[in-house]
Amino acid sequence: MSIVELKEVCKTYPAFELKDISFSLEEGKITGFIGRNGAGKTTTIKSMLNLVHPDSGEIYYFGLPLAGHEREIKQRVGYSTGTLSWYPRKPIKNIVEVTRMFYPNWDEKSYRKYMELFGLDESKKPIELSEGMKVKFNLLLALSHRAEVLILDEPTSGLDPFSRDELLEVFATLKEHGATILFSTHITFDLERVADNIIYISQGEIRAAASKRDFTKHLGQAGETLEEIFLRLERKVTE
Length: 239
Fold this sequence. Notes:
Elements: E1 2-12, E2 17-26, E3 30-34, H1 41-48, E4 56-61, E5 64-65, H2 70-74, E6 77-81, H3 92-99, H4 108-118, H5 131-143, E7 149-153, H6 161-176, E8 180-185, H7 188-194, E9 197-202, E10 205-211, H8 212-219, H9 226-238
Parallel strand pairs: 3-8, 3-9, 6-7, 7-8
Antiparallel strand pairs: 1-2, 1-4, 4-5, 9-10
Helix pairs in contact: 4-5, 5-6
């Protein structure tokens, strides 16, 4: 079942164009959104959240159009980037006290559960957290208002291998709890580990959207890894 759907979303800038972006996210699945830097991943994600206003196209969540239902939808969606933009010198506890005021469906039980799962300390300040823990804090806030869909823009970018591995384990755990996850990346190893589906974007266009198995079967050659498939497809696009 599709829980998120994009239909022919377009956005034109002077030096870049997002062209007829169409894909859907399956409920309870992890979808890797792959493409090189500048391919259009972030513009697509920001369009999905109305942080960038598309020139045309339609976006649906839970069967509802984003246009006209944005406030309702965003109560059920969590967004995180690989960077943290909260007050760096305020304790986590104080940041959470302010954040929960914006979400009528804030779940204190879930907040406490994920605090323990992620190993976060309320007395810590963001400036004192590792990069991996900062990403977990962003996820904590999304999960504490019962976000059913998590949209993550390069969440593992810049993390050391141990922190990346730890975060991928968190994704797998969240999937077990029914979360639908879209995460953009150019690190194909992460897709090998946890992705159920893959959406491949290049030069502002969706080149493929399929299950990881079908992506490998139909676009790969014998013995190729996902990284080798991706690099070969990219070379072909730019020829």
